[in-house]
Write a structure and sequence with these properties.
Layout (H helix, E strand, L loop, with lengths): L8 H8 L2 H19 L14 H25 L1
Helix pairs in contact: 1-2, 2-3
Amino acid sequence: MKVPKHHHLDTLADQLGILEEIRDDLGEILSDYQISRYPDVSGDIPYLQYSLEISVEKIAHANNIFYKLKKYYESIL
């Protein structure tokens, strides 16, 4: 299976058929993806918007997504 190319993570997850499985975690980091990709969107220096606590939470959500994606790809290979 070829991975579709898309900049909208929710659309990409939907195209892969895994949106429901990662929706909650994705919702927690989606705005961060936009800020990291387009730093001028935030109107502030992006790294100043994150405390250690917020960063740890965001990384946990990203790790959950990667874990679920790994399981997904292992199941189709």
